[in-house]
Amino acid sequence: MTRFIPILILFTSLNLNAQNDSIFVRQIFDEALENGQSYENLKVLCKSIGARISGSKQAEDAIRWGRHLLKSYNLDTVYLQEIQIPNWKRGKAEKAWAENSTGEKLTLNILALGGSSSTNGLLKAEIVQVKNVDELKALSSDKVKGKIVFLTEAFDQKHINTFSAYGHCYPLRGDAPNEASKLGAKAVVIRSLATPTDNFPHTGVTEFEDGVKVIPCAAMSTQNADDLVKWLSNGKVMLNMELDCATLPNATSYNVIAEIKGKDNKIITIGGHLDSWDVGEGAHDDGAGIMHNIEAMRILKTLNYKPNHTIRCVLFMNEENGNFGGETYAKLAKENNEEHILAIESDRGGFLPMGFDVVGTTEQLATVKQFETILYPYDLLKIKEGHSGVDIGPLRKYYPEMIQMGLAINSQQYFNYHHSANDVFETVNKRELELGAASIATMVYLMDKTLK
Ligand SMILES: [Zn+2]
Question: Does the structure show a pLDDT above 60 at 50?
Protein backbone atom coordinates (compact mmCIF):
# COMPACT_ATOMS: atom_id res chain seq x y z
CA MET A 1 0.00 0.00 0.00
CA THR A 2 2.74 2.44 1.00
CA ARG A 3 4.34 1.94 -2.41
CA PHE A 4 1.39 3.74 -4.02
CA ILE A 5 1.56 6.86 -1.91
CA PRO A 6 4.43 8.58 -3.84
CA ILE A 7 2.60 7.89 -7.11
CA LEU A 8 -0.57 9.40 -5.68
CA ILE A 9 1.37 12.49 -4.58
CA LEU A 10 2.95 12.75 -8.02
CA PHE A 11 -0.43 12.64 -9.78
CA THR A 12 -1.89 15.19 -7.40
CA SER A 13 0.97 17.63 -8.02
CA LEU A 14 0.73 17.11 -11.79
CA ASN A 15 -2.97 17.93 -11.66
CA LEU A 16 -2.29 20.98 -9.53
CA ASN A 17 0.35 22.14 -12.01
CA ALA A 18 -2.06 21.74 -14.91
CA GLN A 19 -4.71 23.62 -12.92
CA ASN A 20 -2.30 26.45 -12.12
CA ASP A 21 -1.25 26.62 -15.76
CA SER A 22 -4.87 26.83 -16.88
CA ILE A 23 -5.53 29.64 -14.42
CA PHE A 24 -2.48 31.61 -15.59
CA VAL A 25 -3.34 31.10 -19.26
CA ARG A 26 -6.84 32.40 -18.54
CA GLN A 27 -5.24 35.52 -17.02
CA ILE A 28 -3.09 35.98 -20.14
CA PHE A 29 -6.12 35.92 -22.43
CA ASP A 30 -8.13 38.17 -20.08
CA GLU A 31 -5.32 40.75 -20.07
CA ALA A 32 -5.03 40.64 -23.89
CA LEU A 33 -8.78 40.97 -24.47
CA GLU A 34 -9.67 43.44 -21.71
CA ASN A 35 -6.59 45.66 -21.53
CA GLY A 36 -4.92 44.90 -24.85
CA GLN A 37 -2.73 47.57 -26.43
CA SER A 38 -1.70 45.73 -29.58
CA TYR A 39 -4.41 47.19 -31.82
CA GLU A 40 -3.76 50.83 -30.91
CA ASN A 41 -0.01 50.29 -31.20
CA LEU A 42 -0.42 48.70 -34.62
CA LYS A 43 -2.46 51.70 -35.69
CA VAL A 44 0.45 54.01 -34.79
CA LEU A 45 2.96 51.83 -36.67
CA CYS A 46 0.73 51.69 -39.76
CA LYS A 47 -0.63 55.22 -39.83
CA SER A 48 2.23 57.30 -38.39
CA ILE A 49 5.09 55.38 -39.99
CA GLY A 50 3.54 53.21 -42.69
CA ALA A 51 5.48 51.21 -45.28
CA ARG A 52 9.05 50.65 -44.03
CA ILE A 53 11.38 48.78 -46.34
CA SER A 54 14.82 48.38 -44.79
CA GLY A 55 17.07 51.27 -45.69
CA SER A 56 14.19 53.76 -45.73
CA LYS A 57 13.63 56.66 -43.34
CA GLN A 58 10.41 54.93 -42.27
CA ALA A 59 12.35 51.82 -41.27
CA GLU A 60 14.60 53.97 -39.07
CA ASP A 61 11.48 55.62 -37.59
CA ALA A 62 10.06 52.17 -36.88
CA ILE A 63 13.25 51.17 -35.04
CA ARG A 64 12.98 54.27 -32.81
CA TRP A 65 9.27 53.63 -32.28
CA GLY A 66 9.77 49.95 -31.38
CA ARG A 67 12.58 50.71 -28.95
CA HIS A 68 10.57 53.46 -27.27
CA LEU A 69 7.45 51.28 -26.95
CA LEU A 70 9.36 48.34 -25.47
CA LYS A 71 11.11 50.70 -23.02
CA SER A 72 7.73 51.99 -21.85
CA TYR A 73 6.89 48.49 -20.56
CA ASN A 74 9.71 48.46 -17.97
CA LEU A 75 11.30 45.28 -19.27
CA ASP A 76 14.74 44.35 -17.91
CA THR A 77 16.64 45.60 -20.94
CA VAL A 78 15.98 47.11 -24.37
CA TYR A 79 18.77 47.59 -26.91
CA LEU A 80 19.64 47.81 -30.60
CA GLN A 81 21.74 45.23 -32.45
CA GLU A 82 23.64 46.69 -35.39
CA ILE A 83 23.32 44.95 -38.75
CA GLN A 84 24.22 45.64 -42.37
CA ILE A 85 21.36 45.67 -44.87
CA PRO A 86 21.02 45.63 -48.65
CA ASN A 87 19.60 48.90 -49.90
CA TRP A 88 17.20 48.63 -52.85
CA LYS A 89 15.02 51.58 -53.88
CA ARG A 90 11.93 51.43 -56.08
CA GLY A 91 12.31 54.84 -57.69
CA LYS A 92 9.45 56.78 -59.22
CA ALA A 93 8.71 55.79 -62.81
CA GLU A 94 6.80 52.51 -62.81
CA LYS A 95 4.54 51.82 -65.76
CA ALA A 96 3.82 49.17 -68.36
CA TRP A 97 1.41 48.54 -71.21
CA ALA A 98 0.92 45.80 -73.76
CA GLU A 99 0.28 46.47 -77.43
CA ASN A 100 -1.11 44.00 -79.96
CA SER A 101 -0.63 43.92 -83.73
CA THR A 102 -3.71 46.08 -84.34
CA GLY A 103 -2.31 48.82 -82.11
CA GLU A 104 -4.67 48.27 -79.15
CA LYS A 105 -3.19 49.02 -75.73
CA LEU A 106 -3.68 47.27 -72.39
CA THR A 107 -2.43 49.23 -69.37
CA LEU A 108 -0.87 47.01 -66.72
CA ASN A 109 -0.75 47.69 -62.96
CA ILE A 110 2.78 46.69 -62.01
CA LEU A 111 5.19 46.79 -59.10
CA ALA A 112 8.91 46.21 -59.60
CA LEU A 113 10.23 43.19 -57.71
CA GLY A 114 12.76 43.90 -54.97
CA GLY A 115 16.21 43.52 -56.50
CA SER A 116 15.08 44.56 -59.99
CA SER A 117 17.26 46.87 -62.05
CA SER A 118 16.12 50.02 -63.83
CA THR A 119 14.94 49.83 -67.45
CA ASN A 120 16.96 53.03 -68.10
CA GLY A 121 14.07 54.70 -69.89
CA LEU A 122 11.35 52.93 -71.84
CA LEU A 123 12.02 49.29 -72.66
CA LYS A 124 10.03 47.65 -75.47
CA ALA A 125 10.18 44.00 -76.51
CA GLU A 126 8.07 41.07 -77.61
CA ILE A 127 6.50 38.92 -74.91
CA VAL A 128 7.32 35.24 -74.63
CA GLN A 129 4.80 33.43 -72.42
CA VAL A 130 5.57 30.48 -70.14
CA LYS A 131 3.60 29.00 -67.28
CA ASN A 132 6.40 28.57 -64.76
CA VAL A 133 10.14 28.23 -64.22
CA ASP A 134 10.22 24.61 -65.43
CA GLU A 135 8.74 25.69 -68.78
CA LEU A 136 11.15 28.62 -68.94
CA LYS A 137 14.19 26.43 -68.35
CA ALA A 138 13.04 24.08 -71.11
CA LEU A 139 13.29 26.90 -73.69
CA SER A 140 16.42 27.42 -75.78
CA SER A 141 18.05 30.84 -75.52
CA ASP A 142 17.12 31.80 -79.12
CA LYS A 143 13.43 31.70 -78.02
CA VAL A 144 14.11 34.05 -75.10
CA LYS A 145 16.98 36.32 -76.12
CA GLY A 146 15.99 39.99 -76.38
CA LYS A 147 12.41 39.30 -75.24
CA ILE A 148 10.36 39.91 -72.10
CA VAL A 149 9.42 36.67 -70.37
CA PHE A 150 5.88 36.55 -68.93
CA LEU A 151 5.14 33.85 -66.32
CA THR A 152 1.48 33.08 -65.83
CA GLU A 153 0.97 30.36 -63.24
CA ALA A 154 -1.91 31.14 -60.86
CA PHE A 155 -2.40 29.98 -57.26
CA ASP A 156 -3.93 26.52 -57.16
CA GLN A 157 -7.21 27.33 -55.41
CA LYS A 158 -7.57 23.74 -54.20
CA HIS A 159 -4.88 24.23 -51.53
CA ILE A 160 -6.69 24.66 -48.20
CA ASN A 161 -3.71 26.44 -46.62
CA THR A 162 -2.89 29.37 -48.91
CA PHE A 163 0.77 29.30 -47.83
CA SER A 164 1.01 26.00 -49.65
CA ALA A 165 -0.29 27.61 -52.89
CA TYR A 166 2.17 30.46 -52.37
CA GLY A 167 5.06 28.07 -51.85
CA HIS A 168 4.21 26.27 -55.08
CA CYS A 169 4.23 29.54 -57.10
CA TYR A 170 7.19 31.10 -55.27
CA PRO A 171 9.77 30.27 -58.03
CA LEU A 172 7.87 32.59 -60.41
CA ARG A 173 9.05 35.51 -58.34
CA GLY A 174 12.12 34.16 -56.57
CA ASP A 175 13.87 32.32 -59.44
CA ALA A 176 12.38 33.26 -62.84
CA PRO A 177 14.23 36.59 -63.39
CA ASN A 178 17.57 34.89 -62.70
CA GLU A 179 16.79 31.98 -65.05
CA ALA A 180 15.44 34.29 -67.77
CA SER A 181 18.53 36.48 -67.56
CA LYS A 182 20.74 33.45 -68.09
CA LEU A 183 18.82 32.81 -71.33
CA GLY A 184 19.32 36.39 -72.50
CA ALA A 185 15.88 37.87 -71.67
CA LYS A 186 15.60 41.65 -71.52
CA ALA A 187 13.12 41.64 -68.65
CA VAL A 188 10.59 39.53 -66.75
CA VAL A 189 6.98 40.12 -65.76
CA ILE A 190 4.96 37.73 -63.62
CA ARG A 191 1.38 37.16 -62.50
CA SER A 192 1.29 38.38 -58.89
CA LEU A 193 1.51 35.72 -56.21
CA ALA A 194 -1.96 36.32 -54.79
CA THR A 195 -5.17 34.43 -54.05
CA PRO A 196 -7.85 36.70 -55.58
CA THR A 197 -8.31 37.97 -59.12
CA ASP A 198 -8.15 41.76 -58.77
CA ASN A 199 -6.26 44.84 -59.92
CA PHE A 200 -3.53 45.03 -57.24
CA PRO A 201 0.04 43.98 -58.03
CA HIS A 202 1.98 42.20 -55.26
CA THR A 203 5.73 42.78 -55.00
CA GLY A 204 8.41 40.73 -53.22
CA VAL A 205 12.05 39.89 -53.48
CA THR A 206 13.84 38.17 -56.34
CA GLU A 207 17.43 37.02 -56.33
CA PHE A 208 20.14 36.84 -58.97
CA GLU A 209 23.11 34.51 -58.71
CA ASP A 210 26.58 36.07 -58.67
CA GLY A 211 27.67 36.75 -62.22
CA VAL A 212 24.14 36.73 -63.65
CA LYS A 213 23.07 40.08 -65.11
CA VAL A 214 20.43 41.82 -63.02
CA ILE A 215 17.48 42.61 -65.30
CA PRO A 216 14.25 44.57 -64.81
CA CYS A 217 11.42 42.49 -63.34
CA ALA A 218 7.93 43.29 -62.13
CA ALA A 219 4.67 41.71 -60.97
CA MET A 220 1.36 42.66 -62.59
CA SER A 221 -2.10 42.31 -61.06
CA THR A 222 -3.75 38.91 -61.42
CA GLN A 223 -6.55 40.47 -63.50
CA ASN A 224 -4.00 42.05 -65.88
CA ALA A 225 -2.22 38.71 -66.21
CA ASP A 226 -5.45 36.91 -67.13
CA ASP A 227 -6.26 39.62 -69.70
CA LEU A 228 -2.77 39.47 -71.18
CA VAL A 229 -2.97 35.68 -71.57
CA LYS A 230 -6.16 36.20 -73.64
CA TRP A 231 -4.39 38.78 -75.83
CA LEU A 232 -1.47 36.42 -76.40
CA SER A 233 -3.83 33.68 -77.57
CA ASN A 234 -4.58 35.96 -80.57
CA GLY A 235 -0.96 36.53 -81.66
CA LYS A 236 2.14 38.56 -81.02
CA VAL A 237 2.07 41.16 -78.22
CA MET A 238 4.72 43.79 -77.44
CA LEU A 239 5.33 45.00 -73.90
CA ASN A 240 6.43 48.52 -72.98
CA MET A 241 7.86 48.93 -69.51
CA GLU A 242 9.61 51.58 -67.46
CA LEU A 243 11.15 51.02 -64.03
CA ASP A 244 13.44 53.35 -62.16
CA CYS A 245 14.80 51.15 -59.34
CA ALA A 246 18.35 51.08 -58.04
CA THR A 247 20.47 49.10 -55.63
CA LEU A 248 22.60 51.38 -53.45
CA PRO A 249 25.56 50.24 -51.33
CA ASN A 250 24.72 48.27 -48.17
CA ALA A 251 23.71 50.41 -45.20
CA THR A 252 23.67 50.14 -41.41
CA SER A 253 20.44 49.33 -39.57
CA TYR A 254 19.30 47.56 -36.40
CA ASN A 255 17.32 44.73 -34.85
CA VAL A 256 15.41 45.93 -31.76
CA ILE A 257 15.74 43.60 -28.78
CA ALA A 258 14.04 43.51 -25.35
CA GLU A 259 14.38 40.99 -22.54
CA ILE A 260 12.74 39.76 -19.38
CA LYS A 261 15.68 38.12 -17.60
CA GLY A 262 15.35 34.52 -16.48
CA LYS A 263 16.71 32.62 -13.48
CA ASP A 264 19.28 31.09 -15.83
CA ASN A 265 20.98 32.31 -19.02
CA LYS A 266 19.14 30.09 -21.49
CA ILE A 267 17.23 32.06 -24.10
CA ILE A 268 13.73 31.87 -25.53
CA THR A 269 13.46 34.16 -28.57
CA ILE A 270 10.11 35.46 -29.78
CA GLY A 271 9.88 37.74 -32.78
CA GLY A 272 8.62 39.01 -36.09
CA HIS A 273 9.98 41.48 -38.61
CA LEU A 274 9.80 45.24 -38.28
CA ASP A 275 10.53 46.01 -41.94
CA SER A 276 7.81 45.67 -44.59
CA TRP A 277 7.54 46.17 -48.33
CA ASP A 278 7.43 49.75 -49.54
CA VAL A 279 3.74 49.72 -50.47
CA GLY A 280 0.70 49.55 -48.19
CA GLU A 281 1.35 49.81 -44.44
CA GLY A 282 2.84 46.41 -43.61
CA ALA A 283 -0.16 45.79 -41.35
CA HIS A 284 -0.41 42.00 -41.61
CA ASP A 285 3.16 41.59 -42.91
CA ASP A 286 4.48 41.91 -40.34
CA GLY A 287 3.11 44.72 -38.19
CA ALA A 288 0.72 42.19 -36.67
CA GLY A 289 3.55 39.80 -35.82
CA ILE A 290 5.53 42.63 -34.25
CA MET A 291 2.51 43.51 -32.11
CA HIS A 292 1.89 39.86 -31.13
CA ASN A 293 5.37 39.72 -29.67
CA ILE A 294 5.57 43.17 -28.05
CA GLU A 295 2.15 42.57 -26.48
CA ALA A 296 3.20 39.12 -25.25
CA MET A 297 6.09 40.80 -23.41
CA ARG A 298 3.76 43.43 -21.95
CA ILE A 299 1.30 40.79 -20.77
CA LEU A 300 3.93 38.60 -19.09
CA LYS A 301 5.41 41.67 -17.40
CA THR A 302 1.99 42.97 -16.32
CA LEU A 303 1.13 39.57 -14.81
CA ASN A 304 4.48 39.72 -13.01
CA TYR A 305 5.69 36.45 -14.50
CA LYS A 306 9.23 35.53 -13.40
CA PRO A 307 10.59 33.25 -16.12
CA ASN A 308 13.04 30.40 -15.65
CA HIS A 309 14.80 31.35 -18.88
CA THR A 310 15.39 34.74 -20.46
CA ILE A 311 12.47 35.78 -22.69
CA ARG A 312 13.88 37.83 -25.54
CA CYS A 313 11.67 39.69 -27.99
CA VAL A 314 13.35 40.57 -31.30
CA LEU A 315 11.96 42.99 -33.86
CA PHE A 316 14.01 41.81 -36.83
CA MET A 317 15.04 44.19 -39.62
CA ASN A 318 15.32 43.26 -43.33
CA GLU A 319 13.34 40.01 -43.49
CA GLU A 320 11.76 41.03 -46.78
CA ASN A 321 14.77 41.52 -49.00
CA GLY A 322 17.76 39.73 -47.57
CA ASN A 323 17.07 38.44 -44.03
CA PHE A 324 20.26 40.11 -42.84
CA GLY A 325 18.59 40.77 -39.46
CA GLY A 326 17.85 37.10 -38.83
CA GLU A 327 21.22 35.95 -40.15
CA THR A 328 23.17 38.44 -38.03
CA TYR A 329 21.14 37.69 -34.90
CA ALA A 330 21.92 33.97 -35.21
CA LYS A 331 25.59 34.50 -35.99
CA LEU A 332 26.11 36.85 -33.04
CA ALA A 333 24.23 34.48 -30.73
CA LYS A 334 26.75 31.76 -31.55
CA GLU A 335 29.75 34.10 -31.33
CA ASN A 336 28.58 35.27 -27.89
CA ASN A 337 28.18 31.65 -26.72
CA GLU A 338 24.50 32.14 -25.97
CA GLU A 339 22.38 29.09 -25.20
CA HIS A 340 19.20 29.06 -27.29
CA ILE A 341 16.50 26.51 -26.45
CA LEU A 342 13.37 27.83 -28.17
CA ALA A 343 12.31 30.43 -30.74
CA ILE A 344 8.77 31.36 -31.80
CA GLU A 345 7.91 33.61 -34.75
CA SER A 346 4.72 35.31 -35.86
CA ASP A 347 4.85 36.27 -39.55
CA ARG A 348 1.61 35.06 -41.13
CA GLY A 349 -0.63 38.02 -40.45
CA GLY A 350 -2.95 39.17 -37.69
CA PHE A 351 -5.73 36.70 -38.48
CA LEU A 352 -7.42 34.20 -36.15
CA PRO A 353 -4.76 32.04 -34.46
CA MET A 354 -5.28 28.31 -34.87
CA GLY A 355 -2.28 26.73 -33.18
CA PHE A 356 1.46 26.34 -33.62
CA ASP A 357 3.66 24.74 -36.27
CA VAL A 358 6.60 23.01 -34.64
CA VAL A 359 10.09 22.42 -36.01
CA GLY A 360 11.89 19.78 -33.96
CA THR A 361 12.14 16.09 -33.19
CA THR A 362 9.18 13.77 -32.55
CA GLU A 363 9.90 14.07 -28.82
CA GLN A 364 9.95 17.87 -29.02
CA LEU A 365 6.63 17.86 -30.87
CA ALA A 366 5.22 15.63 -28.11
CA THR A 367 6.48 18.14 -25.51
CA VAL A 368 4.37 20.85 -27.16
CA LYS A 369 1.40 18.58 -27.77
CA GLN A 370 1.05 17.88 -24.03
CA PHE A 371 -0.49 21.38 -23.76
CA GLU A 372 -3.35 20.60 -26.12
CA THR A 373 -5.97 20.37 -23.39
CA ILE A 374 -4.87 23.74 -21.95
CA LEU A 375 -4.95 25.36 -25.42
CA TYR A 376 -8.23 23.78 -26.53
CA PRO A 377 -10.59 26.33 -24.85
CA TYR A 378 -8.87 29.09 -26.86
CA ASP A 379 -9.43 27.35 -30.20
CA LEU A 380 -5.71 26.68 -30.56
CA LEU A 381 -6.43 23.27 -31.99
CA LYS A 382 -3.51 22.59 -34.31
CA ILE A 383 -0.17 21.60 -32.85
CA LYS A 384 1.68 19.96 -35.71
CA GLU A 385 4.93 19.72 -37.62
CA GLY A 386 5.46 22.70 -39.93
CA HIS A 387 7.46 25.86 -40.57
CA SER A 388 8.66 28.33 -37.96
CA GLY A 389 9.72 31.64 -39.52
CA VAL A 390 12.26 33.22 -41.86
CA ASP A 391 13.82 35.46 -39.20
CA ILE A 392 14.43 32.74 -36.61
CA GLY A 393 15.31 30.10 -39.23
CA PRO A 394 19.08 30.83 -39.22
CA LEU A 395 19.29 30.08 -35.47
CA ARG A 396 18.81 26.41 -36.24
CA LYS A 397 22.06 26.38 -38.26
CA TYR A 398 23.93 27.01 -35.02
CA TYR A 399 21.48 25.38 -32.59
CA PRO A 400 20.14 22.27 -34.36
CA GLU A 401 18.80 20.90 -31.06
CA MET A 402 16.53 23.84 -30.29
CA ILE A 403 12.75 23.86 -30.80
CA GLN A 404 11.20 26.39 -33.16
CA MET A 405 7.56 27.31 -33.68
CA GLY A 406 5.50 29.50 -35.97
CA LEU A 407 2.14 30.88 -34.89
CA ALA A 408 -0.37 29.26 -37.25
CA ILE A 409 -3.26 31.48 -38.28
CA ASN A 410 -6.29 31.13 -40.54
CA SER A 411 -4.58 31.70 -43.89
CA GLN A 412 -7.60 32.30 -46.15
CA GLN A 413 -7.18 36.08 -46.55
CA TYR A 414 -3.43 36.58 -46.15
CA PHE A 415 -2.57 36.56 -49.86
CA ASN A 416 -5.29 39.09 -50.64
CA TYR A 417 -3.08 41.66 -48.92
CA HIS A 418 0.50 40.31 -48.82
CA HIS A 419 3.13 42.71 -50.29
CA SER A 420 0.49 44.97 -51.84
CA ALA A 421 -1.03 48.41 -51.34
CA ASN A 422 -3.93 46.57 -49.67
CA ASP A 423 -1.94 45.53 -46.59
CA VAL A 424 -3.36 48.28 -44.39
CA PHE A 425 -4.46 48.61 -40.76
CA GLU A 426 -8.18 48.55 -41.61
CA THR A 427 -7.89 44.90 -42.69
CA VAL A 428 -6.78 43.77 -39.21
CA ASN A 429 -9.43 42.63 -36.73
CA LYS A 430 -8.85 43.81 -33.15
CA ARG A 431 -9.93 40.63 -31.38
CA GLU A 432 -8.06 38.35 -33.75
CA LEU A 433 -4.88 40.39 -33.20
CA GLU A 434 -5.32 40.23 -29.41
CA LEU A 435 -5.90 36.48 -29.49
CA GLY A 436 -2.64 36.09 -31.42
CA ALA A 437 -0.71 38.05 -28.79
CA ALA A 438 -2.24 35.96 -26.00
CA SER A 439 -1.37 32.77 -27.92
CA ILE A 440 2.32 33.73 -28.09
CA ALA A 441 2.41 34.72 -24.41
CA THR A 442 0.73 31.43 -23.51
CA MET A 443 3.18 29.27 -25.44
CA VAL A 444 6.14 31.17 -23.99
CA TYR A 445 4.79 30.64 -20.47
CA LEU A 446 4.09 26.92 -20.93
CA MET A 447 7.42 26.17 -22.62
CA ASP A 448 9.43 28.29 -20.19
CA LYS A 449 8.02 26.24 -17.32
CA THR A 450 8.60 22.95 -19.13
CA LEU A 451 12.01 23.26 -20.81
CA LYS A 452 14.99 22.54 -18.58
ZN1 LIG B 1 6.61 38.77 -43.43
Answer: yes
Contacts of 247 (CB under 8 A, 6+ apart): 86, 87, 88, 89, 115, 117, 214
Alpha helix (H) residue ranges in 337-429? 362-369, 372-375, 395-398, 414-417
Concatenated DSSP letters for 40-99?
HHHHHIIIII----TTSHHHHHHHHHHHHHHHTTT-SEEEEEEEEEEEEE--S-EEEEEE
What's residue 16's pLDDT?
72
The H-or-E segment that residue 259 falls in is strand 246-260
Between CA 165 and CA 353 the distance in angstroms is 19
What is the reported pLDDT for 233?
96
Which class is domain 91-244? alpha beta
CA–CA distance, 173 with 206 (Å, rounded to integer): 6
Looking at residue 280, what DSSP letter applies? S
Q: Mean pLDDT score of the chain, rounded to an integer?
A: 96
| Å from CA of 11 to ligand 1 middle | 43
pLDDT band of residue 17 (cuts 50, 70, 90) is: confident
Ordered by start, the domain boundaries in the chain are: 25-88+249-450, 91-244
Asked if pLDDT for residue 337 goes beyond 60, the answer is: yes
| 307/384 Cα distance (integer angstroms) | 25
Q: Which pLDDT tens digit goes with each residue over 244-280?
A: 999 999 999 999 999 999 999 999 999 999 999 999 9
Determine the distance separating the centroid of ligand 1 and the alpha carbon of 41, expressed in angstroms.
18
Helical packing angle, 362-369 and 430-450, nearest 10°: 120
* Distance between Cα 3 and ligand 1 center (Å): 55
Summarize the confidence of residues 141-148 as an average pLDDT: 98
Which protein residues have a CB closer than 5 Å to ligand 1 (ion)?
285-286, 347
What is the distance in A from the centroid of ligand 1 to the CA of 253? 18
Fold of 25-88+249-450: Aminopeptidase (3.40.630)
Ligand 1 geometric centre to CA of 451 (Å): 28
Quickly state the pLDDT bin for 204 (edges 50, 70, 90). Answer: very high
C-alpha–C-alpha distance, residues 125 and 325, integer Å: 38
Model pLDDT, residue 378: 98
pLDDT at 1: 47
